[in-house]
């Protein structure tokens, strides 16, 4: 089991990784000044690029929505991965072997290399299948897609492909690309017989199944020909890459919408996902040959930020008995969410693909809009089994529904459904229902605990809020103690940009964050002694002094440490200052600009110090304290000489 990654390795991965190369995989970046790049923000919709990347300091900042961080937090947010997963992915990218605390282990290079070979094989197979869909032999596959309302553009968007008839078309292709049979056996794309391995998918329409990061890890295949003796749908079997209990088809396309809209729509098939997305329901995903279970919930919770502040999961099921059974099965998993869970059932039995084909996009939207709370659906479905027009039917319905209501873990919600059940049964007294439900809850607890007295409600439930390594703070770094509560932090206001002193102080901090090597040696002493009139800027300066001069030769670690030292409300400001383009277009011009700004800062400090000493001098009686009078005059002379020397340097 993997332990915590050593902090020095995390720093090394962060430092060695080129953030621009990583961001380029998600965002088109263009130069915006020396050492600065801009693009459209991947975290919010915008027309003009405000997403800024500064590779020299290893950070990004969006001046539109305020999202910011380093390369690790970027991968976390884009792939919706944990901190440790992001570090391991970046380490594999640069070939760096991580070390773990307490004797823990992580993926070694051999395992990482084997996994990468499997991913490469799937990527090549994906490209092969997609190319085959355009060949004459794939006419039946194209007809299938067209008959369900999907044109060529839709097929390309979802990566649909075709597996040729025959036994070894893909096998020959991958062998030709340098893969051994031993490697190909591990992919799940081949079956094995007496004469060796052969293509698992033959004469079928293909959908690539991808993980949340967008890597192809398996395939789903639909039968097209009558002489195909296999099942209607055939998926990749369990492999080291493909585990159906952890796979959601369409998650790579839906993840941004799910995170943005705080909604996850679960449908039943590949074409249903396609239909939903094309109809504008871009939060739709599907399980792959298994029920929506615990591992799927982990993915959903991560995307929805399932923290009790909102979000919804909508299950769509057919209106037949099998669909109702699937919905009731989902009821058992529902309470792992704090998000609201709903069921949307189409009474005619039509799935989203059929709805779109027969009644258009609006019908798909209407299906999702018709969602009902899953608890309500479960109870009402139970009541449908009985004739509630009779006393006997109502009693039977009550007895059958009580265990369903009792299974609701949240006490307030359970009480609410006791009252609702009273109304659905047409009973006059909700207290009787509540009494029966509470008795059932206690009985269920005794059965579960082997007769022991049940503890407080919710005892023993998994702590979904438990902190793991790398639970990101705003700076995206692990292992850092939380700062003081916001009410204990002074109030910082954004300075008026028209204030010349505040403007100069801001420029000085931009230079100090982006070109910290200029602070080395004696310059550090001057900088450390500086005082800022703007409270927010003084707090940032205090964080720099707390970080110390030891980091100034390493811009990435310098900014990272300043981030940790500054009060939480000011971290976005530090991020902004560290990436804003400096007004120069050559290395020489940048160097001159930075030195000029620091000289202006130091000259301002000299002016302030001179003013303080002049005030002391004016208040002093020379005859009463001649020594102090002479000392202040000498100090004023030294300050003036220092000011002139600064001007001479610039």
TrEMBL record:
It catalyses: ssDNA + n NTP = ssDNA/pppN(pN)n-1 hybrid + (n-1) diphosphate. GO terms for cellular component: cytoplasm; DNA-directed RNA polymerase complex; primosome complex. Keywords: DNA replication, DNA-binding, DNA-directed RNA polymerase, Magnesium, Metal-binding, Nucleotidyltransferase, Primosome, Transcription, Transferase, Zinc, Zinc-finger. Belongs to the DnaG primase family. Residues 262-347 form the Toprim domain. InterPro entries: DNA_primase_core_N_sf, DNA_primase_DnaB-bd, DNA_primase_DnaG, DNA_primase_DnaG_DnaB-bd_dom, DNA_primase_Znf_CHC2, DnaG_bac, DNAG_N, DnaG_primase. This is DNA primase. Residues 470-485 have a biased composition (Low complexity). It comes from Pseudarthrobacter enclensis. GO terms for biological process: DNA replication, synthesis of primer. Contains an N-terminal zinc-binding domain, a central core domain that contains the primase activity, and a C-terminal DnaB-binding domain. Binds 1 zinc ion per monomer. Its EC number is 2.7.7.101. Monomer. Interacts with DnaB. SUPFAM superfamilies: DNA primase core, Zinc beta-ribbon. GO terms for molecular function: DNA binding; DNA-directed RNA polymerase activity; zinc ion binding. Its cofactor is Zn(2+). It holds the Pfam family DNAG_N. RNA polymerase that catalyzes the synthesis of short RNA molecules used as primers for DNA polymerase during DNA replication. A zinc finger (CHC2-type) spans 41-65. Residues 443-500 are annotated as: Disordered.
């Amino acid at each position: 089991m993997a332990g915590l990654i050593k902090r020095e390795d995390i720093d090394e991965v962060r430092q060695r990784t080129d953030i621009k190369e990583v961001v380029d995989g998600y965002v088109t970046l263009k130069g915006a000044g020396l050492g600065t790049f801009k693009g459209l923000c991947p975290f919010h919709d915008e027309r003009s690029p405000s997403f800024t990347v500064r590779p020299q300091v290893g950070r990004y900042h969006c001046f539109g929505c305020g999202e910011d961080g380093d390369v690790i937090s970027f991968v976390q947010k884009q792939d919706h991965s944990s901190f440790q997963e992001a570090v391991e992915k970046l380490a594999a990218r640069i070939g760096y072997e991580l070390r773990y605390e307490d004797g823990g282990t992580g993926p070694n290079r051999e395992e990482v290399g084997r996994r990468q070979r499997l991913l490469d094989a799937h990527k090549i197979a994906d490209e092969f299948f997609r190319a085959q869909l355009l060949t004459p032999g794939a006419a039946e596959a194209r007809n299938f897609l067209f008959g369900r309302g999907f044109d060529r553009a839709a097929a390309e968007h979802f990566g649909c492909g075709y597996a040729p008839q025959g036994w070894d078309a893909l096998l020959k292709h991958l062998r030709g690309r340098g893969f051994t049979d031993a490697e190909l056996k591990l992919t799940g794309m081949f079956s094995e017989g007496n004469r060796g391995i052969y293509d698992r998918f033959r004469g079928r329409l293909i959908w690539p199944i991808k993980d949340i990061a967008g890597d192809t890890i398996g395939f789903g295949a639909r039968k097209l020909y009558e002489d195909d003796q296999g099942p209607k749908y055939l998926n990749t079997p369990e492999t080291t890459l493909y585990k159906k209990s952890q796979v959601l088809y369409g998650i790579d396309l839906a993840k941004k919408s799910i995170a943005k809209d705080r909604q996850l729509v679960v449908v039943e098939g590949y074409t249903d996902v396609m239909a939903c997305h094309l109809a504008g329901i871009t939060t739709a995903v599907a399980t792959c040959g298994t029920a929506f279970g615990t591992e799927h919930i982990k993915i959903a919770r991560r995307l929805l930020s399932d923290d009790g502040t909102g979000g919804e999961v909508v299950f769509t099921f057919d209106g037949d008995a099998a669909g109702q059974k699937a919905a009731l099965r989902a009821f058992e998993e529902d309470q792992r969410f704090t998000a609201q869970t709903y069921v949307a059932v189409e009474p005619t039995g039509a799935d989203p693909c059929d709805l779109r084909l027969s009644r258009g996009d609006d019908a798909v939207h209407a299906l999702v809009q018709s969602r009902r709370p899953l608890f309500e659906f479960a109870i009402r479905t139970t009541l449908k089994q009985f004739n509630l027009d009779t006393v006997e039917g109502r009693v039977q319905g009550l007895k059958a529904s009580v265990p369903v209501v009792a299974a609701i873990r949240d006490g307030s919600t359970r009480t609410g459904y006791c009252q609702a059940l009273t109304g659905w049964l047409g009973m006059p007294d909700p207290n009787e229902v509540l009494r029966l439900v509470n008795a059932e809850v206690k009985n269920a607890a005794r059965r579960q605990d082997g007769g022991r007295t049940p503890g407080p409600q919710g005892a023993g439930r998994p702590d979904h809020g438990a902190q793991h390594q790398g639970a990101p703070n705003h700076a995206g770094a692990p292992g850092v103690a939380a700062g003081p509560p916001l009410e204990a932090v002074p109030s910082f206001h954004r300075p008026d940009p028209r204030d010349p002193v505040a403007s100069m102080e801001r420029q000085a901090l931009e230079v100090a964050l982006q070109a910290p090597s200029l602070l080395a040696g004696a310059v550090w002493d001057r900088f450390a002694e500086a005082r800022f009139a703007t409270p927010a800027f003084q707090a940032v300066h205090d964080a720099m002094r707390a970080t110390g001069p030891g980091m100034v030769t390493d811009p990435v670690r310098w900014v990272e440490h300043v981030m940790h030292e500054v009060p939480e409300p000011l971290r976005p400001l530090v991020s902004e200052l560290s990436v804003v383009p400096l007004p120069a277009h050559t290395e020489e011009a940048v160097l001159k600009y930075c030195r000029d700004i620091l000289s202006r800062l130091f000259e301002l400090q000299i002016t302030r110090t001179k003013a303080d000493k002049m005030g002391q001098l004016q208040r002093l009686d020379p005859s009463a304290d001649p020594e102090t009078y002479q000392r202040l005059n000498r100090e004023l002379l030294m300050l003036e000489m220092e000011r002139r020397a600064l001007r001479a340097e610039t």
